[in-house]
Amino acid sequence: MQNFYPNNRGGVALLMTLTLCSVLVGCRGASSPTASPISSPPPSQVEHTVHLPIVYKRTATAVLEESASLPAPTPSASGQPTPSPTPVPKPGYGLQVHLLAGDPLETMHWAQGLGVGWVKQQVTWHSVEHGPDNFEWAPVDLAVEVCDRLGFKLLLSVVHAPDWTRVSELETGPPADYAEFGRFMEQLATRYRGRVVAYELWNEPNLAREWRGDTLDPARFVALVAQGAEGVRAADPDALVISGAPAVTGINDGVVAIDDRAFLRGMYEAGVESWVDGIGAHPYGFANPPEERWDDPTHVASSHNNHPSFFFRDTLEDYHDIMLAYGDTDHQIWVTEFGWPSTEGMGSMDTQGWEYGLEVSEAQQADYVVRAFQMGDQRPWVGPMFLWNLNLATIWGPGDPVSAYSLLRPDRSYRPAYIALRAAEPRNEE
Asked: Is the pLDDT at 2 greater than 60, yes or no?
């Protein structure tokens, strides 16, 4: 999941907070390996921010009993007329949803209206485990129950270690002892054995914002993933483990961020493929059409068009090339976040640092989203894809940057992207 933080006009871009713990270096022994140098391209001359999903805390007390009798699906819990045509089934498509605030049934009925088969929910570890053996499971229990009852495959993305497991009191980094992550993932997977299909381990670990209190280093991240993967597999051997996706930043200073391509190469140097079932990716398109590449002679967008990290297609294909270079033909890329922002119809928004959001119309957003999903269908090495996001606008309201990515408006009306995705036909999907 992703967070939005505008660029710092003084120089270094402030990067976002998202979640998800990935791969462990279990077999390799030590939980805190020495940082290893990696070969990386020169840093970009342009300063940018990654605009990705945010993790939200549940605002209402949820208990499983609330979902004991789930009503039959309705076209829209908000009472809107159902757009035509009938939703086209697309079991390999997914959405990032937020079930921990608002009405989870309403949220999942919106998802049903799109014909998708997967949903992703981000779980902040610190909001579940408040102290040793002090758990608040009810919100996640309810989210899992609703998805299970309505027949959705669920990906849980796990991020943000509790303060009491860390060397500092910042909530956006890993635990001091990576084994703590393995312990928590084993408890989580034990509780939801057979009901959660996949777990994404951490989120955007190449960003200082997501890795505070530790050294930015792909080998250290793989060590964390290894611990988490061992925990999941000890509890639920059938669950899939996905590595937390690097953020696409255009930054490679080693302090604020490591370039995502360099970071992925470092993950492979550390043996990530031996711990996971899929490689996470966040190929955001900024304002660039999904088929466009950074080295094309002309560009539709007026900014964020001079680095491969800003292009959906480049990120997908560069990651695949890296995987092949390390001999990995067994894993698929799981697109655990992607999307295009459009400020149209969303009211006044402060777009400082992400002005490209003004250049994407709602019609373009709809077109780009559908085309991106279909591009994934046509690449057998791409696994499930999760659009960011379904319903954050209904929670954060007008003016919040995350709303620009939503398929719904703050008043719960459907944006063109919702209707287009509802009617979209998968291509070459098995």
From this structure: no
Cβ within 8 Å of residue 210, ≥6 positions away: 15, 17, 18, 19, 159, 172, 173, 202, 203, 204, 247
Instruction: Give me the pLDDT at residue 117, please.
Output: 98
Q: Which three-class secondary structure state does DSSP give residue 292?
A: coil
Q: Count CB neighbours of 164 within 10 A.
A: 14
Residue 207 DSSP one-character state: B
- How far is Cα 291 from Cα 312, in angstroms, rounded to an integer? 7
For residue 124, give the 3-state DSSP assignment: strand
Fold of domain 26-33+46-68+78-423: TIM Barrel (3.20.20)
Q: Where are the domains of the chain?
A: 26-33+46-68+78-423
Find the distance separating the first CA and the last CA of the chain, reported in whole Å: 27
pLDDT at 240 over 70: yes
Helix (H, G, I), strand (E, B) or coil at 135: strand
- Rounded Cα distance between 246 and 263, Å, is 7
CA atoms within 13 A on the CB side of 246: 27
* Entry pTM: 0.83
3-state secondary structure of 57: coil
Tokens at 19, concatenated: 């979640």
Q: What's residue 102's pLDDT?
A: 83
Contact 47, 8 (CB under 8 A): yes
The gap from C-alpha 383 to its chain's centroid, in whole angstroms, comes to: 14
CB 119 within 8 Å of CB 147 = yes
Q: Which residue has 């462990």 as its token pair?
A: 24
* Model confidence pLDDT, tens digit, residues 317-371: 999 999 999 999 999 999 999 999 999 999 889 999 999 999 999 999 999 999 9
Res 55: pLDDT: 31
CA 21 – CA 202 distance, rounded (Å):
2
Instruction: Look at residues 194, 165, 371, 195 and name the one whose alpha carbon lies nearest to residue 283.
Output: 371
Burial 279-308 (b: 16+ CB within 10 A, else e): bbbbbbbbbbbbebebeeeebebebbbebb
